[in-house]
Amino acid sequence: MANFIRDVRKDLGVKDMPFVIANTGQNGLETKGTFATLCQMQMDIGDPKKHPEFKGTVISIDTRPFKATDERSPSGFGFHWNHSGESHFLVGDAMGKAMVKLLSK
Predict the structure, then answer these.
(1) In the prediction, which pLDDT does 78 show?
(2) Residue 88 lies in a domain
(3) How many domains does the chain have?
(4) Is 17 a member of any domain?
(5) What's the pLDDT tens digit per position in 16-72?
(6) What are the residue ranges of helices labelled H in the chain?
(7) What is the DSSP string of 47-69?
């Protein structure tokens, strides 16, 4: 992801282009194994201690809390947010608010 951000900024000639990264939180707070590792790596991109070059221009959103319970979801797939419109809305809302924050600086 860090290379992607660098490449896009370079290709478009926008040194500090803002980015909002949402982690792969579709499995919820109980995410384990490879998905948990991936979620943490995605969160790390927005951590200025781990990626100081992105400080103030990249925000990572932890989407794991947005997974609706199976009872509140139209499907019990366990992936793609169980097709929950509420979960999709919460992810988009959090990402949009983060982008507004970045753009208001």
Answers:
(1) 67
(2) yes
(3) 1
(4) no
(5) 999 999 999 888 888 899 999 999 999 999 999 999 999 999 999 999 999 888 777
(6) 2-12, 33-45, 85-103
(7) -TTT-GGGTTTEEEE--GGGPPP
Q: Is residue 90 part of a domain?
A: yes
Q: Are the CB atoms for 26 and 80 separated by under 8 Å?
A: yes
Question: What are the structure tokens assigned to 80, written together?
Answer: 């793609």
What per-residue confidence (pLDDT) applies to 102? 98
By residue range, what is the domain housing residue 98?
22-103
Task: Tally Cβ neighbours within 10 Å of residue 28.
Answer: 17
Q: Are 57 and 50 in contact (CB under 8 A)?
A: no
pLDDT at 79 over 80: no
Q: What is the rounded distance in angstroms from the CA atom of residue 42 to the CA atom of residue 101?
A: 19
Asked if the structure places residue 1 within a domain, the reply is no
Residues 23 and 45: their CA atoms lie apart, in Å, by: 10
